[in-house]
Amino acid sequence: MRALVCHAPQDLRLDDFDAGRPGPGELAVRVAYGGICGSDLHYYQHGGFGTVRIREPLVLGHEVSGVVDALGEGVTGFRVGQRVAISPSRPCGQCRYCQQGLHNHCLDMRFYGSAMRFPHIQGAFRERLVIQAAQAHPIANRLPLAQAALAEPLSVGLHAIQRAGSVFGQQVLVTGCGPIGALLIAALRRAGAARIVAADIAELPLATARRMGADETLNLAQDPQALAPYAADKGAFDAMFEASGSDKALRAGLDVVRPRGVIVSVGLGGEVALPMNQVVAKELELRGTFRFHAEFGVAVRFLNEGLVDGSPVISHILGLAQATDAFRLAADKGQAMKVQIDFGATTG
Q1: Strand ranges (DSSP E) for the chain?
Q2: Which CATH number is 157-288's, of 3.40.50.720, 3.40.50.300, 3.90.870.10, 2.60.120.590?
Q3: pTM above the 0.90 mark?
Q4: 95-127 pLDDT, tens per residue?
């Protein structure tokens, strides 16, 4: 079978790859759709991000859905032809962080399509994939396989909300309305946020944010001072989710979040210098959020039951033969939101 492999920056190839056979407790899955994530783009464009670099050819991808193709020994509860969303998170379950329930901080994590360790953990952009049965989450008959592949980015948003604590009845700001930010907005609606203001520098993400439930959208490219009124009286927002990875956006949040408010940094960017006097004087809480684990099952349930409609986030679906075009399109935030690759397993 074929896999989408990044050999170096701007060097993306369709290579033959050993599909393998499912062992005890495993499933073989024909991959249906795969969504291109920001980390995939960093590998393709730059060969990595920060200190994480590709040191060997890496199969990309971790946002996938598929159709069960074969069952390994001892697997129950699944059948050949069943449609599933696939969690890319494979913690060891044995280390001290797993034992504390902090699976996203597993010391032996094998997360698809990651160069954070060597040898690299190969990704899920393959025509056929062998997974642990626990990674497969059945999807409802009503849910298209393309939308099932949104369970992963929705999980990221759900975990970010967990890190913030309760947002019920709160005034919330989301900066960066790409796929993660847009799905986060839908999740904030489910969590009971009273008012959601979304900010970005492009109109397409803002239009998507409105469809996902934002009460107000601000185009900071057209009006750089659009957030200024929210800085009155030490800030209007109880919580802020910074999903763009922009240091400028994070610093701007310090002005508009009220004293003792919470800022959750979702997007990955470069190093940021913060005015710590402001953080101290307003007693602000800056919290990181990293991946997810238990939230994946919740995300699938929300999608299955129609509690979150992810369809506005998907802007383009291209075939596997057009994978390089798909990556180039995904990098253009003025034209694209979530770009997915069709791997062909669309029935089951």
Answers
A1: 2-8, 11-16, 26-35, 48-49, 52-53, 58-59, 63-71, 83-86, 128-132, 136-138, 171-175, 195-200, 216-219, 237-242, 257-265, 285-288, 314-319, 338-342
A2: 3.40.50.720
A3: yes
A4: 999 999 999 999 999 999 999 999 999 999 999
